[in-house]
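Contributing new records

If you add data, match the layout below exactly. Sequence lines come first and carry their own label; structure lines follow with theirs. Keep one chain per record. Anything else will be rejected by the validation script.
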Amino acid sequence: MASPSLAAAATSPASSPLTLDPIPLAVRPAPGAAAAVPRKRPVLLLDQRPHPASPTPLLSSSAAAAAAAASAPQARRKRPHSSSPRPRWQTALSVAAKNAVLLAVLLYLGGLAWRWAHPPPPPAPDRAALEGYAARVAEVEGSLARSLRMVQLQLEAIDRKIDGEVGAARAELLALLEEKRVALEGQLGRLEAKADELGDALGGLKSMDFLRKEELEKFWDDVKDSLGSGSQNEVDLNQVRAIAREITMREIEKHAADGIGRVDYAVASGGGRVVHHSDVFEAKRGRILGFFGGEKADPQKMLQPSFGEPGQCFAMQGSSGFVEIKLKTGIIPEAVTLEHVSKDVAYDRSTAPKDCRVSGWYEETPGETQSTARMAVLTEFTYDLDKSNVQTFDVTAPDVGVINMVRLDFTSNHGSSLLTCIYRLRVHGHEPAYPGRAGSLTLWPEMGKA
């Protein structure tokens, strides 16, 4: 059903205020051109619904048909929906409101940034609160200082106690060590004294050749001979005692002959003589001259038995000197014995020689001037006053040959600066077992090269 307004528009002339096409007819394109170039133009859509307040007029059939023909092309056109434009004042008001909101947000953010960058100063503290806080801090510091002082005092007391205990323990340990050291030194001293006594005893036995292997074998042979062939497993104690007594008597007789029981090849009565010596001591006072017998010093005294009589010696000038002795014959030396007066009868023992050296060589022709290059040291020793007055010293040189000359050099004595006395010097050894002339005997290696 057509609207009354549309019907009126279809029947009304062009002077009607409500027109469907506001574009003038002069500017409209021709009908053929409209089909070639389509042109968009605004179309005003009218509300064709009847107004509720106005009654719907009745149109004639011709008018309704014309209105339908006129509105059909416009209904066929499709136009996108578009909102009606707003007034400018409304747009300006909307923009102003948005700007105001944005400005308010910026101001708020700037205020926050300013407060963050410039915090407000702290409020002024209360003076009483500060004083109370300072008083509490001072009280805590005082308490800590008192605690620290107490700890230090306790540590010092502990240190003193530990030092005292350690010092006492150290003192006890030192005292114990000193006691042990003294005891050990005493024991070592006693052991050394016993060792010296044993060494002296062994040296005496060795020098006396007491109970040698040959004598023991001979003693055992005598015992077996005395037992007889029929009683090999039975031993008569009386026979053993008799044989032992016989051997003992022989040893006593041998030792009584010259004191030590060894052959002396330098004794004057057997052919030994002194050929050279250092300066003789010349007594200038009657008391000293009387002590040495009132006669001129005789070097042969040192090669004769002195029988322990003080003053029966050969005195040489000073604390050092030498003596050269021609032996009875050529021998292979084994030991030398140096004798001084016994301490039981001596007036002064400071004249005894101390550090000595004995050399030997073989003199081929009598009267030949000996050369020190042909000498060889037999032994070096120290005469000890604390031991026996007759002391024997073994030859220590290896591969000893035949000698017939002996030289005693002493470099010091036991305290006297005026003279040195030699009571007796003995030379022990054995003669070569094969016969021949003295000049053909075995010589020292050094002598063979000379």
